[in-house]
């Protein structure tokens, strides 16, 4: 049986849709300014928003960007891996996709709050020929870069760094694995049963 071929996202909206769902994240962070490492586990929850969502219009107006240029968005939120509390969407950052008119593989991301500094910010992104997404963000006092790619449909890798005027401040590496829900599990069981019956006939 041949494995399903991975279809790499080539636009930000395709990346959002492929990322939708809940991911188990294992991260390792190294702080260069204090020679300290930290690690942790969390859940990343991704939800796609359509282009006419009121959140998109509000963020575009906040950033003085024509809302008709936006093609969609996604909210990214984190919670503790073993947390029993319901996910609070108030703590999720929303990223609005505004692709370049001449090239859908690159564009701007409008964020209602940044990762490094909790302020509205605009990032630049591009997809390389080897399917790696790179996001560059300039804050008031920092510059951040994140790179992300899919290893399989259900495994992602993210690496990032934060730089100041004095050099690289920290680097982070994350391995992310898609969490399956009951529907996905039932689908996988049915698919396995079909392959098994086909192989036997």
Describe the structure.
It is a single chain. By secondary structure, the protein is α+β, with helices and mostly antiparallel strands. 18% of the residues lie in helices and 48% in strands. The chain is built from three helices and ten strands, in the order αββαββββββββα. It has helices spanning 12-19, 54-62, 182-200, and strands at residues 21-31, 36-49, 72-80, 93-100, 103-111, 121-127, 133-138, 143-152, 155-164, 167-178. A ten-stranded antiparallel beta barrel has the order 1-2-3-4-5-6-7-8-9-10. The longest helix is centred in the C-terminal third of the chain and has 19 residues, at 182-200.
Topology at a glance:
Blueprint: H1 12-19, E1 21-31, E2 36-49, H2 54-62, E3 72-80, E4 93-100, E5 103-111, E6 121-127, E7 133-138, E8 143-152, E9 155-164, E10 167-178, H3 182-200
Antiparallel strand pairs: 1-2, 1-10, 2-3, 3-4, 4-5, 5-6, 6-7, 7-8, 8-9, 9-10
Helix-residue proportion = 10-25%
Write down the domain tally.
Answer: 1
Taking pLDDT < 50 over at least 5 consecutive residues as the criterion, the unreliable ranges are: none
Q: Helical stretch count?
A: 3
Protein traits:
201 residues, alpha+beta, Lipocalin, 10 strands
